[in-house]
Amino acid sequence: MEKFKLTNVDLWYNDFQALKSVSMDIGANNITAFIGPSGCGKSTLLKSLNRMNDLIDGCRITGELLLDDENIYGNMDVNLLRKRVGMVFQKPNPFPMSIYDNIAFGPRTHGIKSKIKLDEIVERSLNDAAIWDEVKDRLKKSALSLSGGQQQRLCIARALSVSPDVLLMDEPTSALDPISTSKIEDLVMELKKQYTVVIVTHNMQQATRISDYTAFFLLGEMVEYGGTETVFSMPRDKRCEDYITGRFG
């Protein structure tokens, strides 16, 4: 079952073409990893899936991007799109407010006012992000008092609080230590039972550990895409093989 269907997606920042004719299907309840050297287009493509690129001047996009057969760049309400497609960034970015208010922020924005309902959402989201036990006794404390790894799990909980279908993750562990990284990887593998996950990673071991499918990008082109095991053990394209074996990147 496809969650996203992309057909001939081209993207420009003014005169620079950042994506070149990308076509791919992203399956539901899978973890799909985007890999490739810096500047290859993987984060640009990730941000196109919830129209974060709309915020950049001079950005234009052609081709078709469908979410559940609905055109993302058609008449879709951007706020509703971002409710359905949550985003977690490279550096943890909790709001400067309490742990509770960080999680309740999204639901409140979407009109949920009931304290009972908000309490439920906060507990469920923190549980789903595997951090409830660590923070349940200090929900009124500032989210900025948490460690880096905890802040990142808090940001995942915040993304989950509005019940998205999809979680986009842009190098979510690159700023974290190995133990926090391992916790987030375990968490992501758990989350795919309920969500579709698309992750950009520089860490190829991470892609092999957690993803079901991998796409390799180079200079704005999607060079290779398939089951992770196949892409890593039998890449069809020499450029992909050279990247995976560390000849460049």
Can you describe what's shown?
The longest helix has 14 residues. Strand 7, helix 7 and strand 8 form a beta-alpha-beta unit. The chain is α/β, with parallel strands linked by helices and 249 residues long. It has one domain: P-loop containing nucleotide triphosphate hydrolases (Rossmann fold, 3-Layer(aba) Sandwich), CATH 3.40.50.300. The protein is 36% helix and 27% strand. The protein has ten helices and ten strands. The strands form two sheets. A six-stranded mixed β-sheet has the order 6-7-8-3-9-10, with helices on both faces. The chain has a four-stranded antiparallel β-sheet with strand order 2-1-4-5, with no helix packed on it. The chain is globular, with a radius of gyration of 18 Å. Helix 3 runs parallel beside helix 6, helix 4 packs across helix 6 and helix 6 runs parallel beside helix 7.
